[in-house]
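Q: What does the assembled structure look like for these inputs?
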Amino acid sequence: MKRIPLIALAILLPLPLTAADSELTLKVGGLACPFCVNGVERQLRRLSGVGGLTTELKTGSVSFHWQGTNSLSAHSLSNAVRRAGFTLRESQVRAQGLVKKTGSRETPSHLAFQPAKRVVQSAGPFWKRPPADGGWR
Amino acid sequence: MRKLLLIAGVVCGTGLQAGPITSSTALPVNTGQFIFRSQFQMTRAGNDPGPADRDLRVIAVPTALVYGVNERTALFGVLPWLDKRMELNTGPGRSTRGDAGLGDARAWLRQTIWQEDRPGETRRVAPFIGLKLPTGRSDAADSQGRLPRPLQLGSGSWDPFVGLVFTRQTLDWEFDASASYQHNTRADAFRFGDMFRADASFQKRLWPRELNAGVPAFFYGVLESTLTWQDENRAGRLRDPNSGGLTWYLTPGIQYVNRRWIAEAAIQLPTVQRLNGSGLEKDFIFSAGFRINF
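A:
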């Protein structure tokens, strides 16, 4: 399987993702004071594989690394933010390696993928390549 | 002396998240998280025109704990330690009466019913309902006999209260407004008057002036307004005409907030005191404390 870096942009990713190493950035609505940041970071740390959390209060964004040996669903991200009392407005995923669809649903139209600026190995944009098993990789 | 019950209201009407110093907030509590808060409060009331020349000092150290049941529900508990001392002229001369120990605890549940989150801003509305429990001693006595009810550490009664709080918080400022009503019940043929309280709090970020990268600590300037009204007390079926009334406080304060703890100080200045009968007006209430989440 060829490895490509991908950036996935979505309001809410509805499907589970797996990748070797990913960096995720969440835009959290309602985050407006330092004391509130602790709750969001605490909830995200509880997710398996999440580490290296950094928060930018000015933009309301929380970034973290995620080790791809664990599956991470957008639902779990949204849940974690909600359990802290806030609202997940947007997710950005920067994945190095394999991004695999594990759900059975069709890829939603709002899920837009763009090739990374620096492609390690590429045989063209991934969406133009024929699917190997009926899904996309 | 009759206003001591209001002091208990001030002691216990505290929010625990970042927010007002003397009142409540609707900001969320992380699910499964605890926030601990402790305060030191000193109340002075003197300037008694009567022959007793009463001089009251109350020191209160309320300890509060909040637990985030889920993203919309939080459980609060407050247990104050109180030291009430009143100096007054008696027949033999100047004497001091009072007591020290645990006061009445309060427990309440807050439920967020409306929430709108935007980038760097949140608005919420949350009603709360709770109960004041008679954990404080209400039958203390000294050499002059049983202490007057307002000097007791507890009321001896189970008193329900309800309220509503609105919060709008941005990266630059926060505004909180709340109102609550406490129905006081009878204990030992005595009933403190019901209480109504309305609060407004404005907190402005003074430092850093411009937000930079990361999560900087905030230094807020705080201005709060508290309006309290209490009905007359009743002993048996008789109303006490020298109890209850209206007080309006203005409260300047400062607050330092980082991601783990908050330190704050404020002084409540009674701007308007319209007390029934011959009351002992308060001079000030000073508060200093901290909150920490874990």
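The mean pLDDT of chain A is 69.
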